[in-house]
């Protein structure tokens, strides 16, 4: 594991993701003597709580250009950890004050749109920008939910650009490794394709089931008899509407492709049910079950496993 | 809560559901002095383990007609707790030995098909049959997974028939209440409609997502980056293929109606994503999120709540 230290870290959006990074780096000894963590928020209220909790040392609001200039001067790392639709605006605020030695990274759930925004705003300075996506989340959000061990044993996907120098990418990798995360690498396009399938689509499908029930006259009766299957399936339907609206729009083409593929699978299953084809149904169900069980046994997202075991299991996985 | 006692209980299919009923009734004092619990299995091996664990007192195999006659003579209650496709066959085995005072009930996930089978096999003796569905399950199955408190605070839906005497229905209700369950009532048709929506459809949707991923060349890459959303959404894709095949076929028409309705919701969301209509998406997501959160706050399926609190929360819910 590479050693990583910083003396000045600037986080745009100090919520669960940004706050957990700050807490993890500090508690794991990555902050040098006198190091400063600066939080930038849309308004004073949004960073005040992070300041009170000691997650950041200095709070700056996005509209305070002078404070932003001071904050960004000599920064080692800038992390953008806000809903993806805000990325371009934030980069526009950052660009005028960006030091040549500062590395910028992000934590967005989509990457192609973020990369396009970075290229448009930063021009050739896009070499300083390493797109990233920590695969961690909790049902709760906001800086109060930030945890120093949120990233332990979790995947962080880097989508390095051809413009990035190897050292620049290595620095961002080392930062995330210092939090206990495991680094994976893929292109932005591949990232968006993979996460459209295993994350974005399931969110849409889960929201859709609740939406369907709500549009029926006996919704209350249905909810009152919903049990464990419904609970698990719809847990992600309690996710942030703003975040998932942004993800759906930002990753539109990959998501539509997955949605169309899924609709075809449903049509296949519908035909089997309609035809009373028990063999076809059982074949699909048995194959899915075997794959789902194998995934869980390989560690799944290592929920429920002991932290030590989880971390060991993930360390044994090859980075991709 | 009505007092319920039995001296002879016969369970066809001693797995999680049947085994938990036996354990609950015994540990909660519903077995009178010298009471007997008889387990009937497809083969000797399937009931042997239940006997070893002390869940049943006597093991009988389905093909042993003489033993079946002895088992059923003078039984208070017969519970059928096997995959729903077996209901008709089991009723055919039971019918020749069914005492006039014995009450038969079941634990099937679908009801219209079970009721049709009972009418066909039992004729006018269908008055002795009270269709029921305990809404309880665990990821593990089999008699080893049986728990005496599986039903505490859980819903059990009764679908009484016009032919049932009120006392007959009350006896089955009292039996389930003795396990700590909360009784709801609806027609078989209504039951199948409600559970097609909140249970059967989500299972199909969850199996379908894993199936879709498996049919892509980068399935392994996708699985290796799947996280908490995928975990929750696909937990039910690890369910029994045989059971869910049976459910899909048994509840075909209600399930197809829900599947078609769901496909329409997906088409609506697809159009919004395609059109970049963030307002429409956020509106759907926000409404779903609010409903899902409200459901959880009302007790959900009371997962994660303290047993006492859960039970109290459910006791406060009106029976339906």
TrEMBL record, chains A, B:
* Ranges annotated as biased composition (Low complexity): 303-320
In which pathway does this enzyme or protein participate?
Amino-acid biosynthesis; L-tyrosine biosynthesis; (4-hydroxyphenyl)pyruvate from prephenate (NAD(+) route): step 1/1
The Prephenate/arogenate dehydrogenase domain extends over 7-303
InterPro entries, alphabetized: 6-PGluconate_DH-like_C_sf, NAD(P)-bd_dom_sf, PDH_C, PDH_N, Preph/Arog_dehydrog, Prephen_DH
What EC number(s) does this enzyme carry?
1.3.1.12
| Gene Ontology terms: biological process | tyrosine biosynthetic process
Assigned keywords, A-Z: Amino-acid biosynthesis, Aromatic amino acid biosynthesis, NAD, Oxidoreductase, Tyrosine biosynthesis
The EC category is oxidoreductase
Outline the segment boundaries, as ranges, of region: Disordered: 296-320
Q: Name one GO molecular function term.
A: NAD+ binding
Q: Which reaction does it catalyse?
A: prephenate + NAD(+) = 3-(4-hydroxyphenyl)pyruvate + CO2 + NADH
Q: Which family does it belong to?
A: Belongs to the prephenate/arogenate dehydrogenase family.
Q: What is this protein called?
A: prephenate dehydrogenase
